[in-house]
Amino acid sequence: MKKDRKENLFNKELVMEAIGQSFTKLNPKYQFRNPVMFTVEIGTFVMMFVCAWILSGEKSQGTFIYNFIIFLILLLTLLFANFAEALAEARGKAQAASLRKTREETPAKKIAVLGNLFMNEVHIVPSSQLSKGDMFVCETGDIIPTDGEIIEGIATIDESAITGESAPVIRESGGDKSSVTGGTKVLSDKIIVKVTTEPGESFLDKMIALVEGASRQKTPNEIALTILLAGFTLVFIIVCITLYPFALYSKTSIPISAYISLFVCLIPTTIGGLLSAIGISGMDRALRANVIAKSGKAVETAGDLDVLLLDKTGTITIGNRKATNFYPAPGVKLNELVYAAILSSKSDTTPEGKSIVELGKKLQSENQFSGERFEKYQSEVTEQINFTAETRSSGVNLANGLKIRKGASDAIKAMVLKTGNIYEQEIVTIVSKIAGNGGTPLVVIQNEKVLGVIELQDIIKTGIHERFERLRKMGVKTVMVTGDNPLTAKYIAEKAGVDDYIAEAKPEDKMAYVCKEQNLGKLVAMMGDGTNDAPALAQADVGVAMNSGTAAAKEAGNMVDLDNDPTKLIEIVEIGKQLLMTRGTLTTFSIANDVAKYFAIVPALFITSIPALQSINIMNLHSPASAILSAIIFNAIIIPMLIPLALKGVAYKPIGASALLRRNLLVYGLGGIIVPFIGIKLIDLVVTLFM
Amino acid sequence: MNPQILGVVVMFIATLLLAVPLGRYVAKVYGGQKVWTDLIFNPIERLFFKASRIDPGIEMGWKQSLKALLTINLIWFLWIMFCLLNQSWLPMNPDHNPNMTPDLALNTAISFLVNCNLQDYSGETGVSYFSQVFGLMFLQFVSAATGMAAAAVVFNALRDRTTEKLGNFYNYFLKSCTRILLPVCILVAVIHLFEGTPMTFKGIDTLTTVQGDTMHVSRGPVAAFVAIKHVGTNGGGFYGANSAHPLENPTYLSNIVQMIAQILIPFAMVFAFGFYCNKKRLAWIFWGVMTAGFLILVVPAVIAEVQGNPYIAQMGISQPGGNMEGKEIRFGAIASAFWSIATTVISTGSVNAMHDSFMPLSGMNMLLGMMINSFYGGVGVGFLNFFIYVILAVFIGGLMVGRTPEFGGKKIEAREMKIAMIIALFHPFLILVGTAIASYLAAHDTNMGWWFADAAGKHNASGWLNNPSYHGFSEMLYQYTSSSANNGSGFEGLGDNNPFWNISTSIVLLFSRFLPIIGPIAIAGLLAQKKFIPASSGTLKTDTAIFGILVFAVKVIIAALAFFPALALGPIAEWMKMPH
User: Fold this and answer.
1) Which of A317, A626, B30, B302 has a CA that sits 20 to 30 A from residue A406's CA?
2) Given pLDDT bands bounded at 50, 70 and 90, which one contains residue A2?
3) A339 with A377: CB under 8 angstroms?
4) d(Cα B185, Cα B193) in Å, to the nearest integer?
5) How many CA atoms lie less than 13 Å away from B387 in the CB half-sphere?
6) CA-CA distance, A670 to B553, in Å (whole number)?
7) pTM (2 d.p.)
8) Nearest to A476 by CA among A538, A525, A541
């Protein structure tokens, strides 16, 4: 799916579908939702009657051909506007369909349930027959039939079908990684899954419904903008109706076609025609970023965010800590420390343990310790001591009686001092130096004697600093949430360039922070995956749940990120801003266009009775008829010409609000005044050829 | 520099220099801070509040404020109707002026109530001193104070906080009368006394001229009337000829004082907003936008008047003083042109020359000033009108920077937009529909029956036009524009003292006064209740030049789009037809 992100905007299939839809959408019942285009439709009907009237012998309204052309152009204006909306819908649907493909009918191994008892019986049923609360089994090679939560077992799962990420992920019951998505594939092991959604009600289904328009609600901002546009439309209704007595007074007779043309040109058809396409494409862009938004409002709100709450791990830093250095104690050889460290971590499967082995092996293979072999470490491992919260250390016991331990400095220090050994000052210095650099020191001992210290460091993702800088320029404050101690947290916060941090964070701290910022009137976004994140996700103005997270988290947030990528929020903010900007700039453009249209049509209306008004025909258009035709042709074709802009959105640059306003006013405001002068003149030159 | 131009430049700068400290003073008055006038007015105001049993300490919400505003306005309306319909037997009528006809009384009552002062009567013969002083002059004070108090409510609502309490409307209202309007008026009136404006309750004076003819000169409490007429941007003259009358505006100095008096408080209210809400930069941006609009209108008008009338030039007559038809020699073309634009951008509507006789371009700019109606605008209400455009600009601008729109940390949503749009719509609606009806009737020369009769007793609708063609159209357009802008100036040349014009403009007046007060107060009240969002670097900053340009563009484009066809058929057509 990620691969075809750069697909052609005017894909042939989509265009064909959209063309078909453009005609279906002519239904007045549908048009009624959009006051601007609805009035255009009424105008088109009036022109149809005028044409019929002329055919029946009426002489005052000009030639049939001329009126019929105007009727056609108005019809085309409507079709273009419908086409914009239909194309946006088709794109969204295509996007959703490729996701939906993954959830086509798959056989499900449903577990028969009798009361509270599981029967050891499995029925094969189609996935569509699974309802909420049902349970099913998935084994190696099975496609998971629908969304659910693992209640038993652990499995590696290939989620590439929805995320495009080929590396398999581990999902297991309990904890925050218990959620599985329909359409993904189990690569190993067996899990029992409980269905969490009714058929047809998954997030994806909801998103598809939003894109398809059936359940698309206008967002508050869209409603406000529609009011503005309806207001402008009303002004022009008044202008055009009152023009009739004005013309009577000036002893000018104006044909109906001219009134309708003037009216359609003046009302903001450009933005009116593109408004819903802009909204849909905003959702669509979110979907392209692999984010499922549950409402258009959530995307819109994202553009307004003031504060972002980000987990440190996986967002700011790469996964977990890594070993970066070995510091041997005085009198201990580096190689001895490395050997002991590798041994103690050999069966330690935590990422930290693995990184110690990795770094140790690397040092050894770089051949720094030629020939040095420590016979004592060749002995067999007899016992494996796992890390516990109580001892805060782990290690191995060897057959020759060597006991190697590594762990938190204060825990190890206690062990050393208890046996009467010395805990050297040098070690204390090294430990505090590491902590001061934001690292985590692990002290290694052998039979309660200090061998040295391993430094573990958080690796900050490359490029993250720039992304935070970008957010800051957008006016968004970033806050890092971490379980680290304040010292480490501060160090990482500074290094990564976040504005604030919550150290030693407990789940409820997130909620408290969200509420605190909201009380200051700010809009807060956060990412989360755990059940204990759910309240804060629900409280946040934009809550993005990881697709891998628990069902509760996904239910609480208003967006779901299929990629489980916490930095996705940055993209979401930009999509929200683009959405609003596109609306604003096209409104400005549309209204600014009216200036030129007036200069085309008003002289055309009155030139015969008031020849003096020729002076305001500044475009020097050929004749009244060509002037009116040029203006409405321009008005019609500007809609399809702006479709790419409406669908892609106006480019957002974090250059500060005033600079952005200046740029957009210049491009779309001044441009909106100038472009139609040129456009109408050019069309007039062409139209004249045919007259 | 031409001394005439120097005169208007000096006057403009003087107004600005006076307006800034006055703005600070006004902000302090509304903010309840200590001011030097406390000493004089505290006891007086206490007396008023005690008598009316109002506790000025009780804060009101926006709905309560509006209720108070509309209630007192209704009572004043009843009072003025009583005065005008019974003035013949009421005291202080030395010239024995008759009662007004009901339709004229209605028009006069409403137009003074709404701070418009469209005068379809002539002061010398139409009203008694009792009506002038206790009716009309009283309304000139209270209608101005109503607008100012409404603005004060909006100021209060726009502070950086969340609240439903917007101060006490009666308190704002009374203090506007006592502490702001009264002192400035006394100053202006005293200057006029020294310049020769009458101030007496005696009736018509009869004198014998040098030629031996007998001359009747109307007198009355003119100086006091002239002061509040300008300070309160009312514009209703004591005499029918308004400030062109030699006793109402006797000298070049009195002309300057009247000019300053009418611009002073509209300026000061903008600065008062800055001081009151601690948004001084924003206030200067607003003032800058208004001034830019004013200059764009006034400069072409001055040039057109100085150049003179091309038709007269065609006859080979030189016009060293410019177009002097309908102008007073003692003021000259430049000061008259400046006045004509100032009095129309501000809703004063007093005239010191005949607007009908101005060049079409000047006439168009006067119309534009009233169509936009917020390049300064009337006392208090000018700011309220401007506020509506600010809301529209903030909405479009906010979207353009990628944020849902907000003003002063408050989100602008559907409800506010609905109100703003209705208000912005109503002004062109009233003007265009009114003019359309009148044009339709004139075009068909309809028999108007009771509704209209010209001097010859004919009932044909075209009889109300003194000029045919484009100019006649401008006259009708001007009358409704002036009504809808609550301006009150007349293009004249229109037969407007008859039921048709009196009643139709009265309807326009009522809507165009109270909707633009109700709307902004409602928006501000709704905004005040919303959560305050502190600004971030993504927020659209309003106190910048670029935002000023946006507000300006929104105003001009809305006005241009709504009125371009009408202007094209009136002043533009007339202008284009002139020999160039």
Assistant:
1) A317
2) very low
3) yes
4) 12
5) 32
6) 10
7) 0.85
8) A525
The answer to whether the CB of A503 falls within 8 A of the CB of A482 is: yes
Task: Assess A307–B contact: CB distance below 8 Å, yes or no.
Answer: no
pLDDT band for A632, please (50, 70, 90 cuts): very high
pLDDT, residue A264, reads 94
A253 near B CB under 8 A: no
pLDDT tens, A327-336? Answer: 988 888 888 8
Q: What was the pLDDT predicted at A410? A: 83
Looking at this protein, which amino acid is placed at residue B471? H
- The model's pLDDT over B382-420, given as tens digits with 9 standing for 90+, comes to 999 999 999 999 999 988 988 888 898 898 988 999 999
Nearest to A660 by CA among A591, A587, A577: A577
How high does pLDDT run on average in chain A? 83
pLDDT tens per residue across span A223-280: 899 999 999 999 999 999 999 999 999 888 889 999 999 999 999 999 999 998 998 8
Element of type H or E holding A403: strand A403-408
Tokens of B472: 């006649």
Give the model confidence (pLDDT) of A164-192 as tens digits: 566 677 788 776 678 887 778 888 788 88
Residues A213 and A194 sit within 8 Å (Cβ to Cβ): no
Q: Which three-class secondary structure state does DSSP give residue A506? A: coil
CB proximity B423 to A under 8 Å: no
CB proximity A660 to B under 8 Å: yes
Give the C-alpha separation, A71 to A99, whole Å. Answer: 42
Please report the DSSP string for B385-450 in residue order: HHHHHHHHHHHHHHHHTTS--EETTEE--HHHHHHHHHHHHHHHHHHHHHHHHHHHHHHHT-B-GG
Q: Model confidence over B451-481: pLDDT tens digits? A: 888 888 888 888 888 887 889 999 999 999 9
CA of B320 to nearest chain A CA: how many angstroms apart?
28
Residues of chain B neighbouring A583 (CB-CB closer than 8 A): 399
The CA distance from A493 to B307, in Å, is 71
* B579 pLDDT more than 50: yes
The CA distance from B124 to B122, in Å, is 6
Backbone dihedral angles phi then psi of residue B403, each to the nearest 5 degrees: -130, 150
pLDDT for A6:
46
* DSSP conformation letters of A461-485: PTTHHHHHHHHHHHT-EEEEE-SS-
Q: Distance between CA atoms of A198 and A178, rounded to whole angstroms?
A: 18
- Residue A83 pLDDT exceeds 70: yes
Q: At what angle do helices B545-567 and A657-664 cross, to 10 degrees?
A: 30
Strand-strand pairing, A393-398 and A381-385: antiparallel
Strands of the sheet containing A542-546, edge to edge, are: A291-293, A559-561, A542-546, A524-528, A307-311, A477-481, A500-502
Predicted confidence (pLDDT) at residue A99 exceeds the cutoff of 80:
no
466-485 in chain B: CB under 8 A from chain A: 470, 473
In the DSSP assignment, the letter for residue B323 is -
Q: In whole angstroms, how far apart are CA A221 and each of A31, A34, A543?
A: 20, 15, 20
User: How far apart are the C-alpha atoms of B43 and A143, rounded to whole Å?
Assistant: 87
What is the DSSP pairing of strand A169-172 with strand A107-114?
A: unpaired
Strand partners, B124: none
Tell me which amino acid residue B256 is.
I
Q: What is the mean pLDDT of residues A382-400?
A: 80
Q: What is the pLDDT of residue A159?
A: 75
Give the torsion sign (CA, A497, A500, A506, A507).
Answer: negative
Residue A311 falls in the annotated catalytic set: yes
Check: CB of residue B120 under 8 Å from CB of residue B502.
yes
The pair of structure tokens assigned to A483 is 């379980």
